[in-house]
Amino acid sequence: MNQSLKILHLEDLEADAEMVDRVLRKAKFNFEKRVVIDREGFVRQLREFQPDVILSDHSLPSFNSSEALRISREEAVDTPFILVTATVSEEYAVSVIKEGASDYILKDRLERLPNAIQNALDKGRMENERRQADEALRSSEQKYKLLFEKNPMPMWMVSQKSLSIIAVNEAAITHYGYTREEFLSMNTGRLWNGGSPGLYLSGIWKHQKKDGATIDVEVISHDMVHEQEPVILILANDITEKLRAEAELARQADIQQKLITQTSIQVQEREREEIGKELHDNINQILAATKLYLDVVLKEIGEHEQKDILQKGYRNLNFAMEEIRQLSQSLVAPTLGGMGLDQALYKLIDNLPSTTSLQLTLDTEGWLGDIADDSLKLTCYRIVQVQLNNIIKHAKAKKATIRLRKTDNLELTIQDDGIGFNPEKRIPGIGLRNIRNRVGYYNGQMKVQSAPGQGCILTVSIPLSSQTKLVEPVLANHE
Questions:
Q1: Residue 346 clears pLDDT 80, i.e. is over it
Q2: Residue 399 has pLDDT above 90, yes or no
Q3: Average pLDDT, the chain
Q4: Which residues are annotated as modified residue 4-aspartylphosphate in the UniProt record (predicted)?
Q5: What pTM did the predictor assign?
């Protein structure tokens, strides 16, 4: 034994004490020993020396082993206590062992003493480790109980065998409105609204309180063993208000985006109108005056060559005026007040450039009545206008059909037989993005179906029963 062992020896015979020393040194014990002969010395050394092991003779002139054992236990000392005596009855030895002594050794058999000391020390160490483990377990259970009972989040435990609630904390009782007895006696399915298949799975589920209120709950479940029984520990976090707040934020963001879209559309319409008027009222008037001058010159000129040059210029001038007229009509929004959407679309088709070879058909068989919202009519007019422009410029189509339907939704379909494209590979252009923004403002849906060589179908559906009504942005007038 390398570590020095502190031994307290209760012995009144010096020769017997030395004999014990010889036996221990022979067994290669490294020890420090103090010998006492009476009660006073025993108690003092017990407190000051704090021995690792106590050896005690049975009978001393004014003291004995029974009193020594009792005192050591009263002092709350768990030090191994070994009786080392010359003679003792077997009954007494058994009684001393029952009272807490580790062992007893007869003086004529001291060769057993080293093993007895080692065994007593090992046993004491194991007992101490067991006590520490028990104390750690009790401490852990107390901490767990505190964390479970005093946790501000609703928690309960469900037996994996019976699927019944076996424990519930105060937060769950307060939040759900059930008493502890009601919780422990209820079928766990009563907490889950609609018999959700995710009864004990982590995730977001709907729970039902005692008063019938339905709440959204984020459940965190964990398999564990409680009192040697497999259980599911459940923590329930009520996120009803959080989800409502997130939904409201999303709704406000959607409204804000629609206000931005509407403002952008109004700005575009105003800019288009100003440009169209500028072209029509100013530039076209200048060209018209120039045309009058050419009329005069052509009537009076006689040279054939110069007249031919002037006529070419005259034709180009006419062509430029027609182009400006077409451009002005496309830029300036039509006055839809008192005009049905179908009538506006017929007028749009009639005013298409004469240079286009596209054959257009407007199908209004399912258009029963008109809509009162002029802004929505203008939106549909612009969608058709943008898509027809796309078809004329890019599709190389020979025919196109516009279908207008009215049910609970405004259904608009524009189909062409052009070259088509792959919607997954082609990035939507400005025109389609503009259409998508306009449709989104009215909570509508837009769908594009196309494939190379198979033309294109643009479908727009806008709900009429719940049109989005927003505060119209006020735009400053620019004179």
A1: yes
A2: yes
A3: 81
A4: 57
A5: 0.41
